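Workshop exercise sheet. Pairs work together: one partner reads the sequence aloud, the other fills in the structure field after running the prediction. Swap roles for the next sheet.
Pair: D.N. / O.F.
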Amino acid sequence: MLLRNATILIIDDDTDVLTAVRLLLKTEVKEVVTEKNPENLRWLLSKQSFDLILLDMNFTSSINTGNEGLFWLKKIKESGSEAAVIMITAYGDINLAVRSLKEGAADFVVKPWHNEKLIETIKATLKAKGKTSANAAVPVIGKEMIGESEVMNDIFFKIEKIAPTDANILILGENGTGKDLIARAIHQHSLRADKPFVKVDLGALTESIFESELFGHKKGSFTGASEDRAGRFEAANGGTLFLDEIGNISLQQQVKLLSVLQNRQVTRLGSNDPINIDIRLICATNLPIAELANENRFRKDLIYRINTVEIEIPPLRKRGDDIILLAKHFASLYANKYLKPEPVFDAKASEKMRHYLFPGNVRELQYTMERAVIMSEGEELTANDLIFSPIESSLPKDPEPLELNLSTLEKNTILKVIEKHNGNISRAAKELGLTRTALYRRLSKYDI
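Structure field:
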């Protein structure tokens, strides 16, 4: 990991030390958080993730062990935090500091230190942490992209292959599948990882602000343009630009976007001077590729430009036991956040999740687990704790006609049988009592 991308927590009861380290690091790292009271550690770790923690060995606190640093180091490790820990110690406590290395600390620094030495120690620790993470056989890409299913392992493999290149990527997938996490993972594993990652939700940009937001503007170019402003392309220069919901932009907007991508130059509104840009482009949409191929909706030449490599994220219902893996991850996350015991799923809870289709995908599972953790009474989560309540289910509805009910039943049955046979159409058709051709017609009918 590079120093510039790091989020660092400093825990020391000496305000002067906190101020000095914060001033030293604030221009070197992404974020510096300071804390005088180690009793707030668990709350801080539940609130956000840190790449590195600078931890004092001695505090004026209620823990009179003589080696408070070791106590709090243990608490950090027990919390599940992946942060590397550097101990801050006085010369007389070096023996304790050495012992802290055996307890899991990455390194220690002795007060008073030379600033250059402290920065070098932090850099070396982050670099070693990055290598360890890269070599670990853990089914995780980025912070939340967790999975052990075959389809997700294929995606992880593809990310490792394409991330170091500058190929333009198109990410396809239903809402809530984690397209933004895939985009960030590609950036984090790329050669541009120490440069900006800029996300733009194109679905939120109206026609009137599209050009200004993406390409920037000059002062006075339109009403309200009170100063020169760089657009998102310029902000991402040298790094990665992630255009989310690209399937939602109009044909006119597509023409303007295509021109910039072809020329690798932007011209701010109100200016005639083109500005060279160097970006890695990642786009995402929840539309099927077949809909993007419709020239009445999307320009083919733009598809070719943005789609050097395509990544299709499967819906959660097609990821098998990843549902339980993710559920445990979110349950642990929210138990830590809300200061509750680590939950355990009973058999019926796991079975309920496996049979639910999760129309909202991973995002729905995350919200479901947060609600379950908050409302649960004990350490065990039961099927009754898992409440799947899509927003639309709370609205009054007219009774569905029988034909629609039957269609829904048929679609769900087909999905379950296909999942049972891991996507093997021949076996699924045989179990359903259909020919392959008849099954394909139904897949087309229900857009499966």
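Discussion prompt: The longest helix spans residues 115-135. What would you look at next?
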